[in-house]
Design brief:
Number of strands: 8
Number of domains: 1
Number of helices: 7
Shape: globular
Largest sheet: 6 strands, mixed
Radius of gyration: 17 Å
Helix content: 25-40%
Length: 194
């Protein structure tokens, strides 16, 4: 399965190149082709046999409402609440009960969760100016074992939009037994077919 997830970026490279060229026009002040667009998340999904892997990447702004290090009690509480929500992927992804999917592994990463050294540690008096250009991401990786993967006909993302209303759309790259697809999902059209 790991091989399948590693192959995903190469299989979808033409789509990524076209998207990067499009983003370049909107993102040159950051000097990067990597898209970090508030309101937009990314989801890589792969179904291989009984294993379903989902990788959700989102600007922290979409999930917690800010991207700076949580220093106030209110900010820390918000980060803890979002982490708790992300730790319940069966609620977020609303997989069909008939598929019998259980979480095999999960990993959450973000500077906001204290996973990486604080980006502010090496800043001097210009930190306020630099803070304006910083972007925090939240990455969630889930692996599910599904007893009846044939019951996975659709992937329903409505709960993500409900739980994190600042998320306006999710760019999905999906590899399944029926092939691969790249689609953009919104709250009004939150399901995609495997």
């Amino acid at each position: 399965m790991r091989r399948l997830m590693l192959a995903l970026p190469f299989a979808l490279l033409p789509l990524a190149v076209a998207h990067a060229a499009e983003e370049h026009d909107h993102d040159h002040e950051h000097g990067s082709l990597a898209a970090h667009e508030h309101g937009v998340g990314r989801l890589n999904a792969a179904l291989d046999g009984q294993t379903l892997e989902l990788e959700l990447e989102s600007p922290a702004m979409n999930l917690v409402g800010f991207e700076h290090a949580a220093t106030t009690d209110a900010d820390k509480a918000k980060v803890a609440a979002v982490r708790a929500q992300l730790e319940k992927p069966l609620n977020l992804f609303n997989l069909p009960k008939a598929a019998g999917c259980v979480v095999a592994t999960q990993a959450l990463e973000s500077p906001l969760f204290g996973d990486k050294a604080d980006a502010h540690d090496d800043h001097d008096e210009d930190a306020k100016d630099e803070h304006h250009h910083e972007h925090s991401e939240i990455h969630a990786h889930y692996q599910f074992k599904c007893a009846a993967p044939g019951a996975l006909k659709t992937l329903e993302l409505a709960n993500i939009f409900t739980t994190f209303p600042a998320t306006q759309k999710i760019q999905v790259q999906l590899i399944s037994p029926s092939g691969q697809q790249g689609v953009e999902v919104t709250a009004k059209a939150a399901a995609l077919k495997f």
